[in-house]
Each structure stands twice: as C-alpha cells, then as structure tokens.
Amino acid sequence: MVDSEQLARQIEANHIKIIFDPETICGYDTAIINTCGFIGEAKQESINTILQFTEAKRKGLISKVFVMGCLSQRYKQQLEVEIPEVDSYFGVNALKEIIREIGGNYIKELIGERSLTTPSHYEYLKIAEGCTRKCSFCAIPLIRGKHVSKPIEEILNESKLLIKSGVKEIILLSQDTTYYGLDLYSERKLPELLENLTSIKGLEWLRIHYAYPDGFPLKVLDIMNRHENICKYLDLPLQHINNRILKSMRRNISSDKTRKLIEIIRDNVPNVAIRTTLMVGYPGETDKEFQELLNFVKESKFDRLGVFTYSHEEDTYAFSLKDNIPEKVKQQRANDIMMAQESISYQLNTLKVGNTIKVIIDHDWEDHYSARSEMDSPEVDNEIIINKNSINLIKGQFYDVKIIAAENFDLYAELE
Question: Quick check: pTM over 0.85?
C-alpha cells in the first residue's frame, strides 16, 4: 500500500489521472498491478488479478497492463514467458522506471510524499526496507534484500507531512522494526525514533507493528509508559514456541526466552495489548509439537492473534525440508488455534464491559459507527460497534465511550 501511494503521488504530479479501484476494469488507459510474492495464497491472488486485467486488455477494455512489486521481482523471467500479454514487469524498487514508462518524469522533490488511500485519520509509515534475518521459511530477504533503515530525519519529515494532511494515527512498519537503526547507526534506534516521533504536535496515536522478538529493545517499554500518544500495543510475531521448530525456523530465540520476553513486556507496561502471529504445519511439526503451541496460546492469552499455514517457498532454507504435513492437517491446526483464541478473546472482551475507553471512529455506516481503541490496529483487529441512536459522531475523531456488551472479537459501546 505504501509503495503504491508513493507511485500514485508521482503519477498525479505528472498531471496523469489515477484511480485506486481494483474492481474497475475499464474507463482508463493503463492498469498498474502491485503484487505480493510472499506466500502461496498471495502469489495466486496476484496471478489471478494479472490474468483478469490481461483478459480485459484482450477485449479492448484497456490498452496496457504493467505489473510491479514482489511477485515480478521474484519471478520476472517466468512471468514474461507465462503471461506475455503484460506490457512490462517491474521489481520492488522501480519507481523511476515506471514513471518513465507511462510518459512522466520522476520528481525528486516529492520523496516522502504519498497519495493516501486509507481513511484520512490513519496511515502506515515504513521505517525500513528489506530484512537481514535468516528465517528458514521466509522469502522476503530474497525479494527485498537486506535490511536498510530509513534515516530518523527522513521519517520525521514524512510523519510531519502525514500529520499536516490530517493523519492522527501513524502505524510504524518494516519487515523487522526491532532491527531498526542497526545498519545505519550501529545500534538499535527504535527507542530514539519513538522519542522523536512522540514530540510531533498533532500525533495522537503511534503504533508499532512487526517487532521481531529476538533483540527487542526493552527501552521501548519505558517510552510507552512515559508517552500517552504511543499505543499500549505491540505486534510481536512469534511463529512458534517449540524449541526444535524454533531452531529449524532459525528464529534465534528459545521457548524460555520467548516466555520471559512476554512476561517482561506485561510487567513493565500494564494493560498492554500483545498481538502475535503463529505458523502451523511447518515441515516435520508433530502432533506433540503442535499441542505445545496450542497450550502456549491458551496459557498466554494474547489479546490479538493471527495464524498462517506453512507455505513451501522455493529458494528458502526450509524448501530443502520435506513439506510433509497434509494441507488438511495444516488447516485443522490453524482452526484449532483460532478456536482457542476465540474463547480467549471473548473472556478478555467481557472484562471490558462497563469500562470507559477512548476510541477513534473509522467508519460511518447506515445504522452504526465502527471504532477502534488503542488496543486495535486497522483491518486486522477488533472493532467497537456504536449504534447511531440519533447521535452524530465524526469519522476520524476521538470519543470516550462506555462498553455495554461483548462478542468473541468485537465490542459494543455507547457514547459516554
């Protein structure tokens, strides 16, 4: 999304009209498809989209189809052979080439500027590109290269531009936010970056995603406590808890260290919401090892949790292992994890009934508003439903609401 928004800003600055709408297949000259090549499902979705638009080109509905992003970075030669109807394939760092191809000029002065496609009150901000980790299952380093941190000054300038445009919540992203600064400053600089960002006037919420557990800078916890505009929220992708699996995954962290880190985070930041992501069906994962992961989920009671089934990706270390867990078993294990999390989420949600919390309004629907607390990131986490009942709330504004009912993954509230 961030890459697409940067490209869109350059295109618009060249006085070329642009439409963000994957459902519209006619009414313009050129389609640019930004793809993902991370796991099997994402690759298939990208290919289906490409085929949809090349078919539209064949029917004369559009003139040109360009493909950019991770899939074409990773599989350009194969794609050129398999889908020759695409006019040009571009990799992940081809902004200038794409602009030239559509007849425009790259404008250096627009670095950091984007045409925003999210609701105007929140936006994602990439603090680095690529990844230096060597996780056995992950193709990101093959696609994006080694971790390259964006200088603090550049991030601050981009943040100020976002806030000037009306953004109130900034969500920090990179393949590994924990690593931030190590390549550029020879030390982890996430704490310093957070300190600088919190001082920007108008920034109401600052949220951290994709904090790798190994090497997590504990100073971040102190900063969270001292600054109200840093959400008490951490996205901490753990993947697994069994020591043999963690070692094979090359996660560079043990079960004991993982548990200790969670304990430290919760002890130091009261009421912190921890989101994690887990993987099931990794090569050789036994029933006993999966049961250890399931028990860990039940014991840890994560506030938010997502689960993926293992995807066998060529050129990764794990590709040399036998993908010996049937898809049906992988999916059943994922379902078992989510069933456990559904029960945990309901228990945690019921404890919030009667509490008054600060929320931001994300959507204004016909009969209700959907909002989020600082414990929820857009699209992936829980929503707070507020019935309209003749009240008039403004999208992108903050309100104090009282929680009146709970469901498995959502809450219901009324204006305090």
Answer: yes
